[in-house]
């Protein structure tokens, strides 16, 4: 069984790497903070 991997742009890969670095530094929103920002 052969599955095709969707192509991910270089921009997306860079954004994921940057997000991982921010998370490692403790720079992220909690679920409650995100809901407040989004007005949910």
- Spans of at least 5 consecutive residues whose pLDDT stays below 50 are none
Report the radius of gyration as a whole number of Å. Answer: 15 Å
Give the N-to-C terminal Cα separation. Answer: 42 Å
SSE order in H/E notation?
HH
Shape: flat
Average pLDDT score? 84
Helix fraction by DSSP (H/I, runs of at least 4)? 55-70%
What is the tally of beta strands? 0
Q: Biggest β-sheet, characterized? A: none
SS-based structural class? mainly alpha
| Helical stretch tally | 2
- % residues in beta strands: under 5%
Summarize this structure as a short list of keywords or feature phrases.
40 residues; mainly alpha; 2 helices; flat
Provide structural commentary.
There is one protein chain. By secondary structure, this protein is mainly α. It is built from 2 helices and no strands. The protein has helices spanning 10-24, 31-38. The longest helix is centred in the middle third of the chain and has 15 residues, at 10-24.
Short summary:
With about 40 residues, the protein is mostly helical.
Topology, pairings included?
Elements: H1 10-24, H2 31-38
